[in-house]
Amino acid sequence: MDYHIKDPALAEQGKLRIEWAAQSMRVLKTIKERFATEKPLKGLKISACLHVTTETAYLMQTLKAGGAEVRLCASNPLSTQDDVAASLVVHDDIPVFAIKGEDRDTYYRHIHQALAHEPHITMDDGADLVTTVHTDKKDLLSGIIGGTEETTTGVIRLRSMAEKGVLAYPIIAVNDADTKHLFDNRYGTGQSTIDGIIRATNRLIAGSVFVVCGYGWCGRGVAMRARGMGARVIVTEVNPIRALEAVMDGFEVMPIMEAARVGDFFCTLTGNTSVIRKEHFEVMKDGAIVSNSGHFNVELDLESLASIAKSRRTIRPFVEEFTLSDGRRIYVLAEGRLVNLAAAEGHPSSVMDMSFANQALSVEYLVKKGSSLSKSVHPVPKEIDENIAMIKLSSMNIRIDSLTEEQVKYLSSWELGT
Question: Is domain 190-342 in CATH 3.40.30.10, yes or no?
Answer without folding.
Answer: no
